[in-house]
Amino acid sequence: MVFGEMPQSKLTELMAKRSITLTKYEPECNVTLYRDGTNTVLFDVGAGPDFMPASGKLSESLSAMGLSPEEVTHVIFTHAHPDHIWGVLDDFDDPLFPNAMHHFGRKEWDYWWNPSTVDSIGADLASFAVGAKRRMEVIEDRVELFDDGQDILPGIAARASYGHTPGHMTFELRNGSEPAMIVGDALGNPHVAFERPDWHSGTDQDPVAAAAARISLLDQIAHDHMKIIGFHLPNGGIGRVERSESNYRFIGEPS
Ligand SMILES: [Zn+2]
Fold first, then answer.
1. Cα–ligand 1 centroid distance for 198 (angstroms)
2. Ligand 1: distance of its center to the CA of 204 in Å?
3. Residue 191 neighbours by CB under 8 Å, 6+ apart
4. CA of 45 to the centre of ligand 1 (A)
5. Cβ(174)–Cβ(157) under 8 Å?
6. What CATH homologous superfamily does 1-21+147-255 map to?
7. Ligand 1 centroid, distance to 51 Cα (angstroms)
8. CB atoms < 10 A from the CB of 38, how many?
9. Could you read off the pLDDT of 207-249 as tens digits, one per residue?
10. What does the alpha-carbon distance between residue 135 and residue 95 come to, in Å, rounded to a whole number?
11. Which pLDDT tens digit goes with each residue over 170-216?
């Protein structure tokens, strides 16, 4: 799904160089928790128990940290694919985070809210559209929409990175000594997305726009020496970006 559209011989070469075999690729799913003393914020919520057997562990993970879903004040979404939004409801289909405001990029919300999306998205992704809309209907009265460039909370700014989905958003954290970029699925794997950000990925709904977003994000993250936090990146998703002559490299932080 991820690599199908890429030039296969060059891909094999790249993977061999990095000692990666492509027969099985199971990326991590990392939900980001951010606390500033006042707000307890989640970026995306994972898939919940209905999507993949190994996912849906967010409640357990929070409770291992001594946090209950009731204590979450804000949930901010990068996009509405199943592994990022389906976990927003509990086993009874009620909102899992009853006291939280839920924040969506306006363009992303409008796309999945539109009843014709299920017909235009293609058969392969139709279940994504149905699943997103059903959950959005339940949380509709606790949703706030934001636009590109907007400060959602103090120190958290939204940045458009359209392509993986039509309204995919990333977030700049500038509230402390070290700036960070939460990239969601704009950088969806730790190897090809960094070494060949220009290659089109089969998981991006608009591969051309997604490649442009990746290149622009990598340029800024490397230039500003930002931390990077990626939903499907290894080491808990946290690391740095190193620029070499013609490409980039993900350097995971020791966890
Ligand atoms: Zn994802």
1. 19
2. 10
3. 14, 15, 18, 20, 250
4. 11
5. yes
6. Ribonuclease Z/Hydroxyacylglutathione hydrolase-like (3.60.15.10)
7. 12
8. 8
9. 999 999 999 999 999 999 999 999 999 988 999 999 987 789 9
10. 9
11. 999 998 778 999 999 999 999 999 999 999 998 999 999 999 999 99
Find the DSSP H helices in 57-206: 58-64, 82-85, 106-113, 117-120, 126-139, 192-195
Ligand 1 centre distance from Cα of residue 232 (Å) = 7
Strands annotated E in 21-111: 32-35, 40-43, 74-76, 101-105
Burial 49-86 (b: 16+ CB within 10 A, else e): bebeeebbbbbeebeeeebebeebbbbbbbbbbbbbbb
Alpha carbon of 25 to ligand 1 centroid (Å): 13
CATH class name, domain 31-146 = alpha beta
- Rounded Cα distance between 76 and 93, Å, is 19
Q: In angstroms, what is the span from residue 83 Cα to ligand 1's centroid? A: 5
Separation of CA 164 and ligand 1 centre (Å): 9
Ligand 1 ion local residues (Cβ < 5 A): 83, 185
How many angstroms does the Cα of residue 2 sit away from the middle of ligand 1?
11
pLDDT tens readout for residues 62-100: 999 999 999 999 999 999 999 999 999 998 999 999 999
Domain boundary assignment for the chain: 1-21+147-255, 31-146
Distance (Å) from CA 94 to ligand 1 centroid: 23
| CA 231 to ligand 1 center in whole angstroms | 7
Question: Residue 51 corresponds to which tokens in the numbers above?
Answer: 């999507």
Record the pTM: 0.93
The reply to whether 31-146 shares the fold of 1-21+147-255 is yes
